[in-house]
């Protein structure tokens, strides 16, 4: 049996820290944005009134069966393995997860989770607008090159992951997120990121989200003087924590719809050209990353909630 990989075998990545002030990113250290663009990630202070409890509860309960004696309110948080449209069993990894768009969340998720996810997507949009501003991208291009994700459009995925400690497998494969910006909540170790060809442990920063830049943003900014790097990351095999609970996480993603194209900006940020259909990009990602039966994972032409 494969041993659980202990913390400390890799160098540590202590991500740069920032906070949102209106639609501006204010980093704690000089050069913070430059570092974040190179690392492909940074830690963002959570709003003082942000409550992660609904996400924690769903992550710990969605994979449990809803027994007949469970009160109706509690049953809403259980039994998701039967929801084949949004539940994914990753046979080659520890992770099992939910992936739901806005309409699916409204139909199936407990209301507190839906409200929390909306809040995280709003934060993701503010981060994306701040990055485009700081990189000098012409605002007139924002809607076109992001499929409207700067203003609530595109596809707003929300994922909830549970890592099954009884499986002697890696937690999740090495991959880059596919969209523009990811807002990740995790409070247990296990996440690893590659910087300059070297894997690092990424320890959670209390009171902070981890912001990841994805492949769509990397491609969009590739020709700018300061491009954004999409961080390659993975989750090692995870055991139970000191509290006896399995590892979990949840995240909000800003993605373009699959019926549009990914764009690349001109070096001055005032022009752009289409590079590849989003659907082709996502199909290649699924084949290379998960290597399982879920070929259509994360491919949605338009978030139904956006009309």
From TrEMBL:
<dbReference type="InterPro" id="IPR005123">
    <property type="entry name" value="Oxoglu/Fe-dep_dioxygenase_dom"/>
</dbReference>
<comment type="pathway">
    <text>Alkene biosynthesis; ethylene biosynthesis via 2-oxoglutarate.</text>
</comment>
<dbReference type="GO" id="GO:0046872">
    <property type="term" value="F:metal ion binding"/>
</dbReference>
<dbReference type="InterPro" id="IPR050231">
    <property type="entry name" value="Iron_ascorbate_oxido_reductase"/>
</dbReference>
<comment type="similarity">
    <text>Belongs to the iron/ascorbate-dependent oxidoreductase family.</text>
</comment>
<dbReference type="Pfam" id="PF03171">
    <property type="entry name" value="2OG-FeII_Oxy"/>
</dbReference>
<keyword id="KW-0479">Metal-binding</keyword>
<dbReference type="InterPro" id="IPR027443">
    <property type="entry name" value="IPNS-like_sf"/>
</dbReference>
<keyword id="KW-0560">Oxidoreductase</keyword>
<keyword id="KW-0408">Iron</keyword>
<dbReference type="GO" id="GO:0009693">
    <property type="term" value="P:ethylene biosynthetic process"/>
</dbReference>
<protein>
    <recommendedName>
        <fullName>2-oxoglutarate-dependent ethylene/succinate-forming enzyme</fullName>
        <ecNumber>1.13.12.19</ecNumber>
        <ecNumber>1.14.20.7</ecNumber>
    </recommendedName>
</protein>
<keyword id="KW-0266">Ethylene biosynthesis</keyword>
<dbReference type="InterPro" id="IPR044861">
    <property type="entry name" value="IPNS-like_FE2OG_OXY"/>
</dbReference>
<feature type="domain" description="Fe2OG dioxygenase">
    <location>
        <begin position="153"/>
        <end position="256"/>
    </location>
</feature>
<dbReference type="GO" id="GO:0102276">
    <property type="term" value="F:2-oxoglutarate oxygenase/decarboxylase (ethylene-forming) activity"/>
</dbReference>
């Amino acid at each position: 049996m494969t041993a659980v990989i202990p913390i400390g075998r890799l160098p540590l990545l202590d991500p740069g820290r920032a906070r949102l002030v209106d639609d501006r990113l204010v980093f704690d250290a000089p050069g913070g944005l430059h570092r974040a663009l190179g690392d492909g990630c940074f830690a963002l202070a959570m709003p003082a009134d942000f409550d992660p409890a609904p996400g924690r509860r769903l992550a710990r309960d969605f994979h449990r069966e809803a027994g007949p004696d469970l009160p109706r309110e509690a049953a809403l948080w259980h039994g998701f393995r039967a929801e084949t449209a949004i539940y994914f069993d990753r046979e080659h990894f520890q992770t099992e997860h939910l992936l739901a768009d806005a309409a699916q969340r409204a139909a199936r998720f407990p209301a507190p989770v839906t409200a929390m996810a909306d809040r995280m997507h709003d934060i993701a949009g503010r981060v994306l607008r701040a990055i485009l501003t700081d990189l000098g991208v012409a605002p007139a291009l924002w809607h076109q090159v992001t499929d409207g994700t700067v203003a609530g459009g595109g596809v707003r995925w929300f994922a909830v992951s549970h890592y099954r400690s009884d499986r002697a497998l890696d937690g999740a494969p090495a991959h880059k997120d596919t969209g523009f910006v990811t807002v990740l909540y995790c409070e247990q170790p296990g996440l690893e990121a590659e910087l300059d060809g070297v894997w690092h442990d990424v320890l959670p920063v209390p009171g902070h989200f981890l912001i990841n830049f994805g492949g769509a943003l990397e491609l969009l900014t590739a020709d700018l003087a300061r491009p954004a790097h999409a961080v390659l990351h993975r989750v090692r095999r995870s055991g139970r924590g000191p509290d006896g609970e399995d590892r979990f996480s949840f995240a909000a993603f800003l993605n373009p719809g699959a019926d549009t194209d990914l764009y690349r900006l001109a070096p001055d940020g005032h022009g752009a050209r289409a590079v590849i259909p989003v659907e082709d990009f996502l199909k290649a990602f699924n084949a290379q990353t998960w290597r399982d039966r879920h070929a259509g994972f994360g491919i949605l032409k338009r978030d139904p909630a956006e009309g």
